[in-house]
Amino acid sequence: MNWFLYLVTSNFVDEDGELIRKGDAGVGQCSMSAGIIDAPYGTMYVISEQDVKAYFKKHRLKKLKPHNVRRAIEAFYSHREKEEPEEVEFVFD
Predict the structure, then answer these.
(1) 49, 69 in Cβ contact below 8 A?
(2) pTM across the whole model
(3) Sign of torsion, CA 56 70 49 65?
């Protein structure tokens, strides 16, 4: 099973009538492939269970807590953004 971080990008009312606000987040397990997915009212960031385990091992974390899973996912994608080269447009006059 993979792990996801869901970041809410717009306010909405869920099926229980609770207001979910922009900026709220949640983590959990899913069977979706790893990647960044546009979802209703937000964005899902999905990484593999192996990547979560590697983060926990590197940071010597033993307890599976939501905030630690969120950190693992955020670290994975912030690291990927740094590795990807910037697009540079050259203009010659």
Answers:
(1) no
(2) 0.80
(3) positive
